[in-house]
Amino acid sequence: MTTVNPIVWKIADAVLNLVAIGFEREAIMTEIAKKQAEGMTPDQIVTYLRDMRDAAMMESQAKIDRLPG
Amino acid sequence: MKRTVLALWLAAAFALLPGCGGNGAIKPIETIEVPATLPAAGKEAQKLVNESNVLLTATFRVIGDNAESGVWTKKQAQGYHDTAERYAGQVDEVQNALDRGMWASAQSQAALLSKLIFELNKEVAAQARKAEK
């Protein structure tokens, strides 16, 4: 099997992370656009965004906690 | 193995093309409505708070995914998570200032905070897999 230069992996990781954040952001924006179209008020969106952020924060911590070490 | 690497590069190149979604991390948010009753400074602050929360949500999701998939060490992931959590608390403080009508203060704090969150976002994106020893 061909050995891939670690530098290539590092660059690929960085590009994939950037793409992943971009996709996540697009998904959130799509969700908000849908909520706006459904009639959610700007004040409700403020709360909705904060709740969504807090849910993502708790999920991130839970995934980290499951790691050994 | 070479095909996998090529596929990654092609996916990344496609995603970074304009209009293909992958370059969303650097586009400003303009479509989230803010309360019309706010004064100009308040609207600007609320816009920045909303943008910050969107970016933090995306960042938390990527941190969690990178931790879960083993791309990062626990220490790496926890470090970024803690920074993002601290910024989230500061965003809430700005929102509280907004809710109390402290428009100018909220605007200046939100502007600084959104820059810090954007920098964290770039740092998380640039963070590659754990060093192998």
Summarize this structure as a short list of keywords or feature phrases:
heterodimer; A: 69 residues; mainly alpha; 2 helices; 81% helix; 0% strand; B: 133 residues
Mean pLDDT of chain B: 81
Number of strands of chain B: 0
Largest sheet composition of chain B: none
Task: Give the uncertain stretches of chain A in residue-range form.
Answer: none
Class based on secondary structure composition and strand pairing of chain B: mainly alpha
Q: Residue ranges of chain B: pLDDT <50 for 5 or more in a row?
A: 1-7, 17-28
Question: Structural class from helices and strands of chain A?
Answer: mainly alpha
Estimate the global geometry of chain A from the Cα principal axes.
Answer: elongated
Number of H/I helices of chain A: 2
Q: What's the number of helices of chain B? A: 4
Helix content of chain A: over 70%
How far is the N terminus from the C terminus of chain B?
Answer: 21 Å
DSSP strand tally of chain A: 0
Overall 3D shape of chain B: elongated
Written account of the structure:
The complex is a heterodimer of chains A (69) and B (133). Chain A is built from 2 helices and no strands. Chain A has 69 residues and is mainly α. Chain A is elongated and about 55 Å long. Chain B has 133 residues and is an all-alpha fold. In chain B, helix 2 runs antiparallel to helix 3, helix 2 packs parallel to helix 4 and helix 3 packs antiparallel against helix 4. Chain B starts with a helix and ends in a 7-residue tail after the last helix. The N terminus of chain B is likely disordered. The chains are: A mainly alpha (69), B mainly alpha (133). At the A-B interface, helix 1 and helix 2 of A face helix 1, helix 2, helix 3 and helix 4 of B.
